[in-house]
């Protein structure tokens, strides 16, 4: 796309720059340094400190090619600054041309300007592979700090610096925001902020504000970045409201009848969010609501009530879960709830693909009232006749692309996403700002909190005894096998080994095994046996992580707990404590623990609240990993930090709303500067 804004660089360089996301001048302007080097003043060699980057100058007093211990070129320079004014430059790899140029410089008595760190070598003070230049005559020193940019193979700092300096001269740096508003909120003008960050005055090097990105210039850039993010999210949100969706006005009393048939009453929080969802479904544009609530708070029934409303209005509902085990649990539960009320519930997963049954199921799915399944539901094949509502359980397990694919299946059906992974406030305000949010902040009555115990592997015997005691008391236990991320094959072996060991250690108990490699009917059979109480101890891989609901299970043992992530541990722990029995989660770990592993286990030991755990997780891992760019569909923030810059997130959100309302042209210019053409995903 050659535009007026295209980069003035050879095609080969342009291609490499694309890898860095640099396609336009504006991109270069916003490509900010990682750090700086000070080449504004020359230090006398005799005074130069060890281990700190310095600029020195001197003439070559010797140039030697040494062959031992390995081939190297050693250039000795001196600036006659007194005792210790000699410095060796050592090059272990060099070109012949380089050697000749240095030889020339020595003969002509030319000066070298050198930047690097001095260290104490075997034969005295030296610099290894410093950056240097042979000076022709008295070349002026830099008058600002030298930026060091993130770069990629084949694009040197020098090339990047020249391109960026050029872009800064040619690009439009005009102020896009209201100047008074900016100064009221202590935001520097855009042009001065970027100019400063690309070429700061030397005195700023000592100030930490530049390095830790708290300087006013950084503040402005971070604000602009957050504003662009808020604007794109908000635009996607508004665009959705322009699309039509069926108004799901229930003709009957299905939802009321379902509620009346339940053995429990809804909690206040469940009633509140069910009403929020019901109101959304009556709107003529697609709902996109995230239903959040800690494990075990009862999200499924809220989803079932929404499905009732859609069915009553004459539309179909698709209900997706990330794994077959979970999808099947949902299917069984929904069927038990809804079939007595005359609703036809259909089961559809990927493993049915090749059989004859698949064709029949696909056929049935076109008209079934409620279809439950895995993401097989969004793969080709089903033509829903009247899809009105899509429910996605454990939303954080699906990528944004899968979600969009699903939406295309019907004429913009309403979407209800559910997640037990709570989103900390700053994340909710940024990456998830295009969704409406409902939170269930209350557990059903009668739950007793799960006790968490930490055991070193050396005390495994005590854990085995605890399993025995639990089963003797009529309860059941889960035993989660070590996670082996790098290989599914090894993980399977570990699961088989754990099962064999436990079967020997607890030979009088009934031990079941559940892992991802079982055929789906085998998985279903094991799960059914556990639900029916025919298995005492279920040895499982993390396939049970999400959604599994067996109220009689009161002990969860997690082997090698130090290998699991925080949200995984929290989810696993949530598999127990679902009935009224006292429940325990044992975290077995293998010492010695790394510092992060220790920090993670401490968090899970000390906190039961999923929100607090997620907040700490965010701190330990950072938002990039927390949501994954794949899932966010939004370019990850490069400069702003959601924790540190929380105040800027709020401010950006405020201004984004105001601009879109009152000054859409300004909003568009700002987005163009920051996002350019990288906004496709959001428009879908
Ligand atoms: P999650 O939010 O983790 O998906 P579930 O929907 O699986 O939770 O509900 C957990 C368990 O609590 C289920 O057995 C469900 O039937 C039960 N449950 C849900 N709501 C209530 C309630 N209001 N009172 C008692 N039990 C409930
Ligand atoms: Mg659930």
UniProtKB/TrEMBL annotation:
Residues 459-619 form the Helicase C-terminal domain. The keyword Nucleotide-binding applies. InterPro entries: ATP-dep_DNA_helicase_RecG (IPR004609), DEAD/DEAH_box_helicase_dom (IPR011545), Helicase_ATP-bd (IPR014001), Helicase_C-like (IPR001650), NA-bd_OB-fold (IPR012340), P-loop_NTPase (IPR027417), RecG/Mfd (IPR047112), RecG_dom3_C (IPR045562). Residues 280-440 form the Helicase ATP-binding domain. Its EC number is 5.6.2.4. It catalyses: Couples ATP hydrolysis with the unwinding of duplex DNA by translocating in the 3'-5' direction; ATP + H2O = ADP + phosphate + H(+). GO terms for molecular function: 3'-5' DNA helicase activity; ATP binding; DNA binding; hydrolase activity. The keyword Transferase does not apply. GO terms for biological process: DNA recombination; DNA repair. Keywords: ATP-binding, DNA damage, DNA recombination, DNA repair, DNA-binding, Helicase, Hydrolase, Isomerase, Nucleotide-binding. It comes from the Bacteria. Belongs to the helicase family. RecG subfamily. NCBIfam families: PRK10917.1-1, PRK10917.1-4, PRK10917.2-2, recG. PANTHER family: ATP-DEPENDENT DNA HELICASE HOMOLOG RECG, CHLOROPLASTIC. Plays a critical role in recombination and DNA repair. Helps process Holliday junction intermediates to mature products by catalyzing branch migration. Has replication fork regression activity, unwinds stalled or blocked replication forks to make a HJ that can be resolved. Has a DNA unwinding activity characteristic of a DNA helicase with 3'-5' polarity. This is ATP-dependent DNA helicase RecG. It comes from Candidatus Accumulibacter affinis.
């Amino acid at each position: 796309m050659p535009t007026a804004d295209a980069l003035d660089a050879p095609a080969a360089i342009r291609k490499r720059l694309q890898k860095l996301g640099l396609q336009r001048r504006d991109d270069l302007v916003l490509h900010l340094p990682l750090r700086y080097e000070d080449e504004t003043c020359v230090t006398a060699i005799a005074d130069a400190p060890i281990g700190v980057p310095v600029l020195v100058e001197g003439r070559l007093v010797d140039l030697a090619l040494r062959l031992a211990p390995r081939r190297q070129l050693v250039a000795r320079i001196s600036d006659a600054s007194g005792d210790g004014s000699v410095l060796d430059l050592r090059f272990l790899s060099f070109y012949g041309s380089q050697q000749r140029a240095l030889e020339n410089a020595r003969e002509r008595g030319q000066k070298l300007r050198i930047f690097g760190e001095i260290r104490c070598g075997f034969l005295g003070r030296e610099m290894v592979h410093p950056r240097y230049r042979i000076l022709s005559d008295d070349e002026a020193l830099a008058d600002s700090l030298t930026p060091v940019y993130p770069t990629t193979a084949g694009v040197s700092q020098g090339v990047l610096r020249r391109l960026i300096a050029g872009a800064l001269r040619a690009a439009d740096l005009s102020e896009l925001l209201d100047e008074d508003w900016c100064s009221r909120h202590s935001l520097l003008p855009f042009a001065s902020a970027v100019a400063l960050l690309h070429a700061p005055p030397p005195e700023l090097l000592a100030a930490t504000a530049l390095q830790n990105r708290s300087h006013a210039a950084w503040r402005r850039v971070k604000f602009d970045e957050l504003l662009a993010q808020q604007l794109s999210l908000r635009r996607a949100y508004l665009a959705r409201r322009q699309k039509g969706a069926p108004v799901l006005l229930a003709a009957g009393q299905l939802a009321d009848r379902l509620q009346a048939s339940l053995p429990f009453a809804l909690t206040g929080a469940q009633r509140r969010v069910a009403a929020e969802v019901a109101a959304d479904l009556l709107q003529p544009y697609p709902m996109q609501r995230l239903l959040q609530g800690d494990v075990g708070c009862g999200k499924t029934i809220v989803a079932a009530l929404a499905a009732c409303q859609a069915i009553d209005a004459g539309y179909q509902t698709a209900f997706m879960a990330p794994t077959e085990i979970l999808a099947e649990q949902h299917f069984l539960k929904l069927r038990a709830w809804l079939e007595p009320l005359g609703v036809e519930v259909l089961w559809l997963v990927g493993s049915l693909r090749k059989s004859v049954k698949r064709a029949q199921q696909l056929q049935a799915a076109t008209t079934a009232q409620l279809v439950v399944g895995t993401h097989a539901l969004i793969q080709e094949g089903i033509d829903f006749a009247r899809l009105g509502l899509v429910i996605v359980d454990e939303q954080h397990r699906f990528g944004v692309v899968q979600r969009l694919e699903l939406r295309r299946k019907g004429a913009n059906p309403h979407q209800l996403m559910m997640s037990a992974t709570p989103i900390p406030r700053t994340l909710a305000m940024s990456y998830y700002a295009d969704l409406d949010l409902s939170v269930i902040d209350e557990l059903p009555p009668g739950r007793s909190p799960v006790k968490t115990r930490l055991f070193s592997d050396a005390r495994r015997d005590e854990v085995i005894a605890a399993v025995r005691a639990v089963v003797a008391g009529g309860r059941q236990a889960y035993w989660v096998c070590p996670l082996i991320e790098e290989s599914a094959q090894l993980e399977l072996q570990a699961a088989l080994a754990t099962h064999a060991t436990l079967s020997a250690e607890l030979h009088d108990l009934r031990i079941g095994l559940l892992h991802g490699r079982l055929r789906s009917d085998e998985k279903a059979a094991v799960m059914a046996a556990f639900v029916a109480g025919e298995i005492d101890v279920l040895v499982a891989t993390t396939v049970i992580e999400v959604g599994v609901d067996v109220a009689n299970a009161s002990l969860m043992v997690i082997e090698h707990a130090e290998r699991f992530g925080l949200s995984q541990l929290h989810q696993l722990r949530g598999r127990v404590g679902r009935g009224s029995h006292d429940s325990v989660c044992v975290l077995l770990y293998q010492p010695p623990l790394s510092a992060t592993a220790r920090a993670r286990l401490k968090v899970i030991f000390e906190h039961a609240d999923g929100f607090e755990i997620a907040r700490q997780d965010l701190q330990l891992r950072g938002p990039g990993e927390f949501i994954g760019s794949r899932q966010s569909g939004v370019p990850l923030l490069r400069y702003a930090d959601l924790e540190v810059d929380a105040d800027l997130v709020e401010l950006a959100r405020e201004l984004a709303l105001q601009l879109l309302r009152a000054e859409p042209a300004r909003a568009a210019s700002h987005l163009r500067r920051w996002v350019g053409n990288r906004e496709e995903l959001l428009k879908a």
